[in-house]
């Protein structure tokens, strides 16, 4: 059947190429070469084939390979075929126009776009022509009999120049990949905004900007802060107090005036939606409509801001916020597979880029201290990163073994950084269970001293009540037997204080002093 009687239908051809009926492929290639009724070259059919039989056979093989290529390999296969045929064009085995026509038709059958096809063929033929070749010599295999060798194509053959040809083809693939990498790199570089270079002299002519505080003496406007909190010291409660101060315009911790903002976003990966709702309800925020909560518990990996495209999506999500609170760092690092001790800086730099893209100038990130409760856990970059560092710590109880309500353990808050310098003071929980108040007059050192003093007073009342008439040496021994911790000599002033308070009385007995509880003592038998 002639080409005129069987016009080429592209849809049917593509289906045929990808079916298992590969036996139809030779007929299809004949149609391509003859220029069927629907082909683009039907008006100007090619002249009689040029080149050598060897070259035409090679072109036929390459065209078949291109037409049968699957999605994902088509352009690469076309590039290899163009390069190989370009070598034969330069070696006088093929005519370039016929190569272009045959490979273009094969590429169309494979489903490649016309523009991509033309560019790939031109590049491949051009590169191949730089490495001309002719018919590849055949050598007799060690296992080939003289009779088989005389039969030419019907017997086993070894092509002597295969290695050199494969090297040239692989080199072309590497050139294409390298060019593609260079193109992508240039595209990325063109999208990067390079900061403006400025003279220091020009900068010094500008007046200094007055420090504007978001939270007075703690956090400047357009600044980033790190809340560095000891385990279970109350960082979430402190963060909630900060949110309320931001949106309601009330003083933070009752001590630090705070500038109200229009919108704040809280990204939390620890609490969960139900607990967040309960805690923030107890804070009694006057303007809850100004607070947006994003619950990331169990979904921290979605905050993959290391990926520029995902970071841009998060920037769209945060756009319009005036401030942000992120609680807390470690789950984000774990979800993204980052080592807290070596790779935290990658996340922090990406966080800065996110906030800049979103237009959020003020933000605070919470983080846990190490087991000693004094320093931020992990990479030193964590402490280099913020403008201001806030510390929240629990006091060590005077008697670690004594049972105590965790809420009764004193908490202490302080801050330092580029602008802030607030000495540590105690934060007390008000009766509502969520509102914190700062007391600058109580430090951890003074609280430890007071705790030891109160523990010693309590121990003295116990041993004197259980041993009325005990002298000073006996009182000291009984205190140590009860496990009361104190420095030798502290018990004397403590007893004097109890006498002054009317809780203990002293009686002289020769050179000794005997001790008794008074009726006013809470442990006195008479009370």
TrEMBL record:
| Short name of any one Pfam family annotated for the protein | AAA_25
Q: Where is this region: Disordered?
A: 32-57, 124-157
- Polar residues bias locations: 36-45
The protein in question is named AAA domain-containing protein
Q: Which organism is it from?
A: Isoptericola hypogeus
